[in-house]
Write a structure and sequence with these properties.
There is one protein chain. By secondary structure, this protein is mostly helical. It has one domain. Helix content is 69%, strand content 0%. Helix 1 packs parallel to helix 3 and helix 3 runs parallel beside helix 6. The radius of gyration is 21 Å and the shape is globular.
Length: 270
């Protein structure tokens, strides 16, 4: 009888352990990429040579990202899903580097602009980051074409999520937040301060946090309901991206004396 119980308990324990392992791997991958990539992008703004080096490295990694998405397009195993996510994340890293490095931004205002969040400031604010947003959209289209008819679209949806949550953060900053993290912008992007709203939280902040939290909860629920390990892993990755988005947008509304990237800001010379 004891032997029979041991035989039965073995597979059950393994079945419970597998989802936990997927959660650990997925969460660790997203959080590590979020913290390291953001920090390195900040630090690389130290000087013109470091910005150029960052562009070269990011371009090489972006090409690797496309390669990983192509190689994992028909692999919907948890490992294949993580590879596809990394591919999309590296493409998003390229978008971020080209923006913060000043290589692909938008149209800087040629004169005074209306104070945000006035309607008169909307079009200049959109124009100020138009090139970066256009580049992100082009990459999304390219990723969609690359994974057309594939079984693994994790890289594409990760790229879409990174871009979408950035738009939520940008809109919050435009409308006004207590902590817009203006010190994160390097000197060559100082003109974007003109599109920062008043230093008080707008009515949009907490509903946007709630909407992101609801999306995160839905993705987490999906990860528990999915019967396929690859789909479960993908949902975990999406839930973690959204959880970090909740944290980032929430922090916009809370005055902070320090951030997780203070050491990178010091390395930049801030």
């Amino acid at each position: 009888m004891r032997a029979d119980r041991a035989v039965i308990a073995g597979p059950v324990t393994a079945a419970h352990a597998a989802p936990l392992r997927l959660h650990r791997h997925g969460i660790a991958l997203v959080v590590l990429f979020w913290w390291v990539a953001t920090g390195l992008i900040i630090a690389m703004q130290r000087s013109a040579p470091t910005r150029l080096a960052g562009l070269v490295i990011a371009t090489a990694l972006g090409a690797l990202g496309m390669h990983e998405m192509r190689r994992s397009r028909d692999d919907d195993s948890p490992a294949g899903v993580r590879r596809a996510f990394l591919g999309g994340a590296l493409l998003w890293g390229w978008v971020s580097v080209t923006f913060y490095g000043g290589f692909l931004t938008g149209l800087a205002p040629s004169g005074p602009v209306a104070a945000a969040p006035a309607w008169a400031a909307v079009l200049p604010a959109i124009a100020a980051t138009l090139a970066s947003d256009a580049a992100a959209l082009i990459l999304m289209v390219a990723a969609a074409m690359l994974t057309r008819g594939a079984v693994n679209h994790t890289g594409l949806w990760s790229l879409v999520l990174f871009w979408a949550v950035q738009q939520v953060a940008k809109l919050n900053v435009f409308l006004g937040v207590e902590n817009p993290a203006a010190n994160f912008l390097p000197p060559h992007l100082a003109y974007l301060h003109a599109f920062f709203g008043p230093a008080r939280n707008s009515a949009f902040l907490w509903p946007s946090v709630a909407a992101l939290a609801a999306a995160m909860a839905w993705a987490a629920w999906t990860s528990r309901r999915a019967s396929h390990a690859g789909r479960r892993q993908a949902a975990i990755l999406y839930a973690t991206i959204l959880a970090l988005a909740v944290l980032e947008v929430w922090l916009l509304g809370v005055p902070l004396a320090s951030t997780p990237w203070d050491s990178f800001l010091k390395a930049r010379g801030t």
